[in-house]
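Form 12-C: Joint structure prediction
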Amino acid sequence: MSKFEFPKSIASRPIWGTLEVRSGEHHLMIAEAEGAEAVIDIATPDLMAKTHLIYIPKGTDFSERLQALNPAQFYESPSYAAALHRIRRVLEDAHMGLQVYLTGTEGMMGQAMNEVVAVGLPHTAIQTEHRGSVARRMQCVHCKGVTEDVEVDPFVCSHCGLNLFVRDHYSRRLAAYQGVRVDAEDHGNVPEPKGIYE
Amino acid sequence: MTIQFNDESFRDDYTFHNSEWAIKRFPFPFHEDSYMYSVNMEQHRGGPEGSVYEMRFDVDEHYVSEMKDRAIVLDQDPLRCQSLPHMTLAGWDLLELIMVSKSEDYPDLFELHRNGNQWRWINKPLGIDHSFTFMDETTLPYGPMEYITRQAQGDFAVLDQRDEMLWMDAGMVTTQADWSLDFDIGMNFFEWHAPVPKAHEMGIFKRALKFLLNIQQGAPARRLNWTMTVNPLLDTSPENYHKWGIQKTTLTPENIAHKQHLRVELQTFFRLPRSNALVFPIRCYLCSFQDLMTVPKWGRRLHRVVRDLPVELATYKGFIDNRPMMLDYLSQFDDGLPTSPGVWPDLETEPPLSK
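Section 2 - Result
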């Protein structure tokens, strides 16, 4: 199952939606990994004929099924970072009324949302749906470095090497959750890591 | 009155200290023998003479040393002061508010001479005499918010107001109770308060927001908040928590009297005239347990508050592990006598400790 029910949390934690078809002349979809299934779930020939679809497989293989939907434009990118330049270029030409569909991990959706809002599109033009990995994009509050795809709590900051615990406090501007040194009051006492939702 | 400014540190050797004057005017935050969250807003229109509530921006004996500490923090981490691009006008509003208030409230310390947009600002304690053009950023060494808040005690959150909501869009934050401006900048009122336990369910933030959205020019408001800090450390930031967190474990029965501090925030709220932003100064006052115990009423009351505080709040405020040791110390100053209502020390009327 690619759908996950996130437990109830604090007010800064994002709540993701469920994609639905919206009317409009232009549609941009970014599907990461199992996010492809969310696109397949809503795809209609009419919608896809007006859609630029960007697919980031991250180890999945939905390429053929997505192309079979006959999107107006299809692009497969090895990573979000690699796709970013293309996404920005597409958004540069975007007109009011563009409908944006983001589906995949929280980290990808959060970052892409910032790109969309940065060009002046209203947040109401963006739909999201979480699919696949529940890993988080984490910012170390100490060194400010971002560690992608964090699946366990606590985890080691990929920049400064401190052991950080995973908070639910989330910054939309950074598209990241906050990581804080777990053994700050008892150096070296680091609990055994476990899955974030275990 | 003339203030004698202390030469003191808020880090390393911790030479911070309160004079007897500063202890008597300490903003003790508990008006009764127990504590629970409340919106607890009141008008900020002066207060008893000599109290921290009297002036719009209180200046005390720690002023010069606090500004030195702020400069150290900013040297080490410039991200503690940030302003999103649309907040520059609010920065000028804030500069004007502080300069006008301080020059009127403390004419012996601060002077502001205005001739149209040509302004001259004299800050005697910090040795500044600076002429600049109001609203022209090129005539200041920093942006307007940073310039003036390097000369004003306390943290400053500058909140934009739009869509019936407040947004944390600028700030100078170097003396915070464990929250990060760099992380929270751009968040709305509910988001940046998200980590606070219980208060959401109690409706505290909804009511507070409603109140704050309606604050008018010339009618500022204030409230108190509090926490506990081991050592008189101003910079209890999450950024540096990996360095200072360990200090909490250095508390012993022998050193608790001078090492454990009650940390009180005097929070005020002012509407800014041009930007319609809201500025939220958060002024931090520290007082050691041993100094607080010189006021018998506060000794009795602090013991009862700390003893009866719900576990969740003591955890959030970060002193759950040290609470038993705190109670061992504080109980010596609680003889069970009743306390008078209100926050004031009432030294003339409250009985001395009888045990």
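Section 3 - Comments
Residues 42-240+264-290 of chain B form one domain. Chain B touches chain A through 25 residues (CB under 8 Å).
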